[in-house]
Amino acid sequence: MASRPARPDAPTRLTDRKRAAIVDAAVAEFRAAGFEATSMDRVAARAGVSKRTVYNHFASKDALFLHIVDAMMASGGDEQATPYRADAPLREQLLDLVARKLRLLHQPDFADLARVAIVAGLHSPDLARQLVELLGQREHAMTAWVRAAAADGRLRTGDSAFAAMQLESLVKGVAFWPQVAMGQPPLTQAQQAAVAESAVEMFLARYG
C-alpha cells in the first residue's frame, strides 16, 4: 500500500515536530486545567519531550500562551482576508469579513482559550498587558477594510476603528460573549448566517 502523503503544512524537521507537539500539548493543558494550574512540566509530559526542550522553544509559560493566542488569531484568516475592493458591492465584502470572524470564533479551541486568557489576565496584570499589546500589533482585517472604504468615500465615518469595533461588537454580542461568559452553545451554521446578515445590514444602515 502506498504511504499517505504528508500535509503541505506538516512540520518535517524534528525540531519543528517537537515544537508543534509542545504547542498542541499546551493548548490541551490550558483548556483542561486553566492557566494557573498548567505547568511546563505538564506540557512536557503531554508532549512527550523533556522540560528542557520546552524551554528551548519557549522561555516561559507566558511566552508559550502568548504564542498560542497569536497563532490562533492568525489562523482566523486576517492575513488571507480579501482587502477592500472599490469595484465590488460593500455588502458582499462585509459578509465575507464577518463570515471569517465567525469562523474564528467557532474554532474548537477559541472559546476555551478566551476564558483562560480572561481569567489569567485578571490574576496577572502583566500578562493582560502583554495580551493587549500582542493583539494591538495587528490591524485587524475589518478595521483595515473599513478604513479603506471610508477613504474611498463609500462609508460615512470619521473614526474607522470605532466603526469597525461596533461591527465586531454586533457579532461578538451574539457569537462570543454568551458562549464564553454564560456557557451558551456555539451557533449553528444557519444562526451564523443570520447574525452576519443582520450585523451587516445594521452597519450599512448607519455608515453606508
UniProtKB/TrEMBL annotation:
Keywords: DNA-binding, Transcription, Transcription regulation. Residues 16-76 form the HTH tetR-type domain. Signal peptide: none annotated. GO terms for molecular function: DNA-binding transcription factor activity; transcription cis-regulatory region binding. InterPro entries: DNA-bd_HTH_TetR-type_CS, Homeodomain-like_sf, HTH-type_TetR-like_transc_reg, HTH_TetR, Tet_transcr_reg_TetR-rel_C_sf, TetR_C_Proteobacteria. The keyword Manganese does not apply. Residues 39-58 bind DNA. SUPFAM superfamilies: Homeodomain-like, Tetracyclin repressor-like, C-terminal domain. Gene3D superfamilies: Homeodomain-like, Tetracycline Repressor, domain 2. This is TetR/AcrR family transcriptional regulator. It comes from Luteimonas viscosa.
